[in-house]
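Hi W.,

Here's what went into the run:
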Amino acid sequence: MAEPAQRAVVINPAKICQPIGAMYATLGINQAVPLVQGSQGCSTYVRYQFNRHFREPVNIAVTSFHEDAAVFGGRKNLIEGLYNLVLRYRPRVIGVVTTCSSETIGDDIETFVKEARKEIGRGLGEDILAQVSIVPIHTPSYAGSHVKGYDTASKAYLEYLAAPGQPNGRLNIIPGIINPGDIEEIKHLVREMGVDPLVIFDISDTLNAPMRLPKPLYPEGGTTAEELKDCANSQGTVALCRHAGGSGAQYLLRKFNLPAVLGPLPVGVANTDTFLENVQKITGAVIPPSVERERGILLDHMADTSQYTVMRRAAIFGDPDIVSAVTRVVCELGMEPVVVLSGTASKDFTAEVAGVTAEYGVTPDILSGSDLFAFEQLARERKAEVILGHSKGVDMAKDMRVPLVRVGFPVYDRVGLFRRPIVGYRGTLELMDRIINSILDFAYPEDKLHQ
Amino acid sequence: MSFVTLKVDEGIAERGQHTYITDSTSPVLPVCNVRTIPGDMTERGCAFAGCRGVVGGPVKDVIHLVHGPIGCSFYTWGSRRNLSDNPLHRRYCWSTDTQEKDIVFGGEKKLCQAILESAALFPEANAVFVYATCPTALIGDDLDAVAKRASRAIVKPVHAFNAPGFCGVSQSKGHHIANTYIFEHIVGTRELEDPTPYDVNLIGEYNIDGDLWVLKPLLEDMGLRIITAFTGNADYDSLCKMHCAKLNIVHCQRSATYIADLVRDKYHIPYLPVTMFGIEETSNSLREVAAFFGLQERAEAVITRELARIEPELNFYREKLSDKRAMVYVGAPRVWHWIPVLYELGMEVVAGATTFGHEDDYQKINRRAHDGVLIIDNPNELELEEVIAEYRPDIFLTGLKEKYLSMKMGVPSINSHSYEDGPYAGFTGLLNFARDIYKAIYSPVWKFVEGGSDRG
Ligand code: SF4
Ligand code: SF4
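Here's what came out:
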């Protein structure tokens, strides 16, 4: 079977488009609205993905390109769009998210934004204008996936907003495309160490909002514009996902000399150890007994359940940082990763995963930038017993008669997973339980469990 | 004059003529099928969505190859629940995954290659449908030329649908383009081997959550044979033979009257617009179809049988739903399809809206809705919020995006695009429809929502 590298057609992609990544980041900002500079599909489809994964409404606006914009460019659309958005929503932050069409046409977004600011100031008043930051984010999907989109947004926001001031003693965390539950868990760990986390793009409240009337116009929470400004004054930055947020951390390093740590995503024992050590290195805080206890509980559980996991063949797909961390967990559980796929092409994903698996003496097929069609073929050949990935793996799992353990984005065919962490010791425990219970539910003789 | 201006639209003159209150003594039509104001949080999608997602997508035995960057393909992969009985359908997503160099040098070669590869990998597919997207249309890729070339090479039909997202003002334009294309290039290319006097097509029926599978037996039990549905669970071959029908029955009259018109004009096959939701409308529709063929008695037998089957259970829901106040916002036709159904269930309709309705949709709404119903054309998120807060309906029938908005505001909602647990069409569907509304309204959760009304 031809690998997509040799195939022109991509069949069953394991990646989405740049704008959705940029919007993922934007939705983690307090009172922020992504404004999609393009046609309506590029925004409506994205909203739908968020709605189905988080079961939440999301505020996303669009400049509605039609034929005239396709011919003459999107200047009028953007100026009018920004004006209307400010008139109606008074957002603190607007992320102008470009699309394949506006980039193909070659819209001069920066100039259009300047013009729009003038109009807003004239029409709505300078004080209203002063309240809103408008940040262009260039996200043509023909040059990268959702992972890159998030990464691009992380840099764009910080370039635009971060400003030097008094040291604030906080630790910046750029989460990447992970869930509200993961962010909660990271905050918990950092706080246990006595450090105040400043999560940049904090979707933990904005995309997991309570039902409480009256509904506010914007969901509560999210990183405030002030915090985005202030993150130049933190002690350092940890980008949990190197590919999604790493550029933001590097920018803060270059510009403000903040120590930057890029990954690994703290899933599993070793990666969580590394994360805590990194926090320690940057802030000088010590790892408290409470966190050591969490680690001990994880180890205890790993020992209790290794009969179910050791030697079990797993196939893993999704975003590079998540996949590489989950591969490590799978190895830590004594399972054998047989196929590992990053849907987003990455320069160092293959070497990274090969490094992890070499430590454990296993040799999976590693695919970078390939599709689920190729992945499925290999997973069958190598007789995977469990698949780890998002909801798009469900058909192959059914056909192969193996369980799908849902990890990543989007997960729309199970409830509540976005609320539960897979990061940290406690999150790893959750992920382990998910893996083991799926195996037990699926194909394990009941009588063997009557112990 | 019964136009109204919502509070959130004050200062936005363009929105003034989109909102009105029904009034049978002096009915008005809103400004509709016009462009959305930039900066809106619109529910509208793109023409590509209408073409690929709505009309083309349900065809079950072809390769749906999207020529564009990955997003446009990913988003249309299995997201609309147009079910079929073909395992090839909905399980796969084909894309040319346009890259920067394709944008610069053109993507035709890659497209051609992708068609050849797909056809080789999936020999069971009977044709290839290729869809343009905004970026590949902007760079001027000639999909028709590639399709012709590729078709000769794979010796199977290859069709190019040129409905990039930016054309028209909504998905509606994509419906139109797909209709015209299928009529011009597919319909009439093969003949039915065994025509009967009772052959029909069911047009504008996409088998959402199995709608077709409850409608088809009704027509068959009356003695009719369905050549094809356009396009729910349709195979390529049957679309080619559409012109052999004696009558076209048109269900979704927004997305598919185009092809019924074209077939009538060229092949002199009449069509009948119908509503197959709710008892009265479904029964009347079956009667009208039957009258065309002289099958009235059989229709009555089917109707009597179905009513006997559903009435007992339906009475329970009628009692529970009586006087509940509904708001309904979907694409367009289902608004006027469902208004009488809601009345039939004893419910009141307080507000309605369409995403991409044209004048004829609003005419039908005006005919079917009682006086005093608030109607909005192409509402945005803020307008919906205002209306939900003002009217506080007992149920909001709408799509997934607005469903979560509604519930956040303490108002129960069901997914009315793809359904919760359908089908919703026909007699069987009415039970599901009523049950899903009941489940939403009577969920005990609403007792706990402070400021929400205790409905149970
Ligand atoms: S055109 Fe680009 S931005 Fe729009 S949906 Fe397609 S891939 Fe995404
Ligand atoms: S790029 Fe165009 S065709 Fe693709 S989703 Fe966006 S609007 Fe639709």
